Amino acid sequence: MDKHHLISIFVAVVDSNGLAGAARKLEISPSVVTRAINDLEEMLGVRLLTRTTRVVRVTEAGARYADVCRRILSELAEADESARGQHGSPQGRITITAPGWFGAKFLTPIVTAYLDQHPQVSASCWFLDRVVNMIEEGVDVAVRFAVLPDSSLQAIPVGRMRVVTCASPAYLARQGTPRTLADLASHSIVSAGAVAPGHELRFSQSGRSRVIKLQPRLATTTNESAVAAAVTGFGLTQQMFYKVAEPLASGQLQEVLCDFEPPALPVHVLHREGRYASRRVRAFLDLAIERLRALPELQA
What we know:
The protein is built from 10 helices and 14 strands.
């Protein structure tokens, strides 16, 4: 194999945290990946990866080499674009993922504005209520609501999202407003995201995290239906603020247990290309970060 191909495979192994992940990403066999790494290490005379039967870890020399290789690969890609007469304008396809409701409401206008600015780019939007493996599934940019584990992905903070518990005024007039966490046991709970028995509500009490496990009266797979049920007066639901911002503002829902509200979730934009991201990814990040940071829903 030529050296360009070898370092492309090596960077994919590092970014995928393993040989198998790189093979899936590049759509080649694991044996080809293994041979490429062996050839590159023999060519350089240095160990780039430490491999056991269970894990693959990059060595200190390998991490430094991978960083340089990403820059080289990025510059080569940009040189190719320039040679094709693109004059540095973004081109190609970008794949973006976000939670379903948030993506549809807040990210879609950002994506369409980006595409209007860059007519040589097309986009795929995966608005799903599951965590997408960006490396294995080939996703360029993601929006996540969570405290993030350490990873090779680059994360840019764009705000914080409150988690609120609410119900309709009619329900509260009929059933009473809960004042303590113990009061929840006598209320109808509407849960979303799972239909398995049992549901966890998260709160904060005296500076400590509290998890209350309750049997929901209504369990549904979508947040939209859970919010709709709460608006009709069926029960209490706990949601990220953006999902209930409009019915709260209109008076259809009312917040309860505000003194026990859990800490707001950090919101990040993630990408997997580091500081050597392609032009199309960099251009989208610039626009998305600016607009997301301006959203009132993320100003917790």
